[in-house]
Structures are given as structure tokens and as C-alpha cells.
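Quick start: read one record
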Amino acid sequence: MDLPLTFLHCRRYPGCTATVNKRFTYYTLQMMTAGAVELFYDDVRYEMHHGWFWPCHPGPVIRFHAWPREGKWDHRYVAFTGPMALRWQSEGLLMTEPEAIVPSDMRQMTKLFDALLVQAERPGRWARLRAINLLEQLLLERAELRQGPSPQGLTWLKQIMSALATVGPDLNYKALARSQGMSLTTLRRKFRAATGMTMHEHHLACRMTEARRLLGETDLPIKVVADELGYRDLYYFNRQFHQQVGVPRGHIASHVCGRESLGLMQSSQSSQWASGGILSGSRRILQR
């Protein structure tokens, strides 16, 4: 039986100088234990010092780098995708913005994250189960500290995300809105505010997650997989798969952590956006 969460890649960089500038098609949890980072979600800016967690997720263009630019920071991260990530999101477990790590929690959080990295890098089903357990434990710890909305308060979101997880193309968004007693405009606005992405983007991500699973774990021909997911145009399916997953369907990456790159851009590439200076938007200086 396939496990509900796939670890894509993970690593620790003690003296990180890299720049990230991308629109994510999967989820990551980033951790900084020393240094300072400038972070953007589209045009919303954060400046973080010392110990912080922050999420990366589908939706906005996410950019971060050392602050000041010539600095370094102690960086850990884990990237993952799958139905369990979507469930965690619907239950309010996944972070939606940066969160400070208080000094008294730093040792425990670092130890937990390092244990997660060890298990996520090991091959085999049992190691992956342990890694899933450790990641969920970490997310539960942070959610309890946030004292955010309870899962009961997000019942509508869980129901909508469950409907969007169907792999077929025939979704009636108006009917979904009516099922929650909302107009379609209201549902679209609330869904984007809660998840950072549109309903269509989420539905497409679910279909591509299933495509990746079928292509990577079965011997089904590409045309059969496309048909099962409701695609009648094979070229269109191939194009969407490449755009969403980031690799051609014939080169599915291994589930073993470490075989995919971090997705970090080299410093020479950072000039593509850094030359424009700090974006005009919300400015938040985050320090413990």
C-alpha cells in the first residue's frame, strides 16, 4: 500500500548563502537556527532573525535569502507532497506564515527536525513511516503553540478539499459552493485566503500528485494514466505534468530523499529579482 506522504528532498546547510525564488508545486518546512533571512510571499516582506520556522507552499512566488545579502544562516528544510499534506492543511496543521522559535524550545525543535532529516533520508517503508510521524509531531507541537483555529472550525475547508481531491475533471464549483451555503465568489475568496491557492490550482495539484504516483509506482502506460485522470489530450497531460511536477513524465524522481536538488538558485541567478530592490508591500521586521 502506498504511503500518504512522499518526501521529495531535505538537507541541512550550516552556513547557507543560497537564494530561493520560485513558485512551489509542493510543500516545504524551512527552519533557521542562527543568522537572519529576508523572506517574501509575493510582495509581503518578512525580516527574520535568530530562530524561525516558515512554510513554502503552492500559490505565491516565494523568495528568501540571507539578510544582509552577504550574510549566512543555519538552514534546515524538508520538502514533501501527497494526500496527507493536503489533509494537514485542511486541519490547520501546516503553517501559513513564519513562526518564531522561543529560546526555551530551540533545543527540542532542532533535535526533532534533525531526527526527521535522518529518517527522511533513509530508504525503506519503515524509515518513511518514522519520518511522517516525526513531521506530524513537529507540526502538532507548533499548532498547539499557535493556538490557532480548531479542526472543527475548518470543517468547510476539509469538505471542499476532499471534493477537490477527486482525480476526475468534472467538478461543479457552483455546487460545491451551494453545499457550504456560500456564493461561488465567497468560496473562492475564503479558499484562497485559507490555502494560498485557488480551488482549480489545488484540484490540478491533486491530479498531478496521483499522476506522479501512478507513473512512478505502476507499469501503466502513460495513455492509461492520462485516461484515468480524465485527460483526453495526451499532449496536454504531458505539458501539465511537466509544469506541475517539474520533470518530464519519463524521468520521475526517486522517492529517496536527497536525489532531488534543493531547488535553490545560485547566487548569480538571484540578480533576476534582487536588482529591483525591496518590493513595495507590507514590511515586517521579525525578531525574537
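Residues 6-148+259-286 form a domain with the Jelly Rolls fold (CATH 2.60.120.280).
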